[in-house]
Amino acid sequence: MFAIDGYKTIDVCFEPDRAIVTTILEPIQEMLCHRCEHPLDSALSRYHLRIKDLPIMTYENFISFFRRKGFCPICKKVRAEKVHFLSDETPHLTKQYTWWLGKITEVTNVAQAGGLTGVDKSTLWRIDHSKLGT
Ligand SMILES: [Zn+2]
Predict the structure, then answer these.
(1) Which of 18, 24, 80, 92 could form a disulfide with 10 if both were Cys (CB 3.0 to 4.6 A apart)?
(2) Rounded mean pLDDT of 94-101?
(3) Is the pLDDT of residue 134 over 80?
(4) DSSP letter assigned to residue 43
(5) pTM of the predicted model as reported, rounded to 2 decimal places
(6) Are residues 101 and 119 in contact, defined by beta-carbon separation less than 8 angstroms?
């Protein structure tokens, strides 16, 4: 149901009292540098991300996973791995949710889009602004 390329779904948690769905993923893809896309050496550390995806009906929808970090021999630095579904504008939203928010800001202003979606105005402004640049 909630399959994402390069990740294995570990669990899907429904919280009816809070109207929240959380999909817990585990990466099974090769770790690639998020900057240059060269394979990273073995994972040195990881950090937890809980990012917002498109709502499901009236439920807020989150994806929860650990993003790994490893040494990139090209950048000669420790880099976070590339996460293909992460928004370019903010690390708190998915690409598809950002696309949808961009569509909403096409038909209404940022303040009204914020009231409708619960996403803060500065994030919506950034999404709207980056869309104008493309
Ligand atoms: Zn790199």
Answers:
(1) 24
(2) 95
(3) no
(4) E
(5) 0.86
(6) yes
In this prediction, residue 128 carries a pLDDT of 87
Cβ-contact 102, 129 below 8 angstroms: no
Q: How far is the CA of 86 from the centre of ligand 1 (A)?
A: 17
| Residues contacting 85, CB < 8 A, separation 6+ | 4, 63, 94, 95, 96
How much distance in Å is there from the Cα of 44 to the middle of ligand 1?
15
Q: How far apart are CA 52 and CA 27, in angstroms?
A: 18
CA dist 18 and 55 (Å) reads 13
Indicate the helix (H) or strand (E) that contains 133.
none
Spatial separation of the C-alpha atoms in residues 114 and 110, rounded to whole Å: 6
User: For residue 47, what are the β-bridge partners?
Assistant: 67
* 82 CA to centre of ligand 1 in angstroms: 10
Q: Give the distance (Å) from ligand 1 centre to CA of residue 36.
A: 4
What ranges do the domains of the chain cover? 1-83, 87-134
What's CA 83's distance to the chain center, in Å? 8
Report the separation in Å between the CA atom of 76 and the middle of ligand 1, taken as the mean of its atom positions: 7
